[in-house]
Amino acid sequence: MLVPSPWRADFPAIATLQRQDQTYLDSAATTQKPQALLDAISHYYANGAANVHRAQHLPGAHATQAFEDSRNKVAQWLNVGDDGQIIFTHGATSALNLLAYGLEHLFKPGDELVISALEHHANLLPWQQLAKRRELELVVLPLDNDGLIDLEAAARLIGPRTRLLAVSQLSNVLGAWQPLPQLLALAKAHNAMTVIDGAQGIVHGRHDVQALGCDFYVFSSHKLYGPDGVGVLYGRTEALHHLRHWQFGGEMVQQADYHSASFRPAPLGFEAGTPPIAGVIGLGATLDYLTSLDQPAVMAHEAALHDYLLRGLKARNGVRLLGSPHVALASFVVEGVHNADLAHLLTEQGIAVRAGHHCAMPLLKAMQLSGAIRVSLALYNDSDDLERFFEALDQALDMLR
């Protein structure tokens, strides 16, 4: 079965890796970058870098315009409407911590925060630590056999004491789209705030946050073919009014004297200090590139490649898939084989996959696993990549068995 990628040439690092006999199958951790992004960052630095929002000179005006154009592009990508609802952070983890500190004043001892059993540490630890600081109850929604949040259990556990629900859109370990409409409806029935970790989901398809109806949605640029060090926090206008400032310094101040200060509202009020200017401009260029693609063709390519991966894994004796992955990735273990040993032998053969707990240690512990191998795909991968992976996997298993 041939699954070529018509976009492979748009990512110069893929050709470089191929010359080094490397096959990159770790895009759920971070993606390779399109030429459009490299060009945009090079142009910014080569034509006069400057700080944003703070200077009247021409380089500053150009930088500010490009920076704010990117905010508008993110708003369009998410169908936000008002780009004032888009806050730039230093990553999804940074955005989630901003929420955990910025919303802290709303909670009192005995209130409940609800997460799920599959959360990445970035969407677990900020709420876990908030619960400790404010004497809150952290409620963990269990999963069903397919790796989905159990809706019957959720209906029992989300109740009148629930003040906030924070769940992932797409599991970075199980590759399963979570039942967000039902979960959000349960939370809204009790007037709870809702936070969606879109770090994995943002990469696959276009997601309309207005239709989704969440209060907050976060993602990282580096997983969406953009630069690292940049994150996005979307907040509904009404929800943003509840946020208190959590970092203080330049840019976010309206007025200041030695003993008091007033602060800007969102978005600039939550972008203290010099932001990742080049990265934000680069993210805008990446979104321009992604917008130019035939989205149905991209989705069809991802689906065909994912099907090829799943069929190949299921055909091999002793391989057990974790959950029922829907898109782009598959995590698996092999009976009698330690995941670290297998990852080592794959690495020696030039196959770049992820091994371990994937920043979801409680989930792997609940499965009584020390770790797993994860293969994750992007629009630049093709069936030749998977053929190389399967060949290396077979050789590694022959040695280990």
From TrEMBL:
One of its GO terms (molecular function) is pyridoxal phosphate binding. Residues 23-389 form the Aminotransferase class V domain. Its EC number is 2.8.1.7. GO terms for biological process: cysteine metabolic process. Keywords: Aminotransferase, Pyridoxal phosphate, Transferase. Pfam families: Aminotran_5 (PF00266). It is an enzyme of class 2 (transferase). Its cofactor is pyridoxal 5'-phosphate. It catalyses: (sulfur carrier)-H + L-cysteine = (sulfur carrier)-SH + L-alanine. Belongs to the class-V pyridoxal-phosphate-dependent aminotransferase family. Csd subfamily. This is cysteine desulfurase.
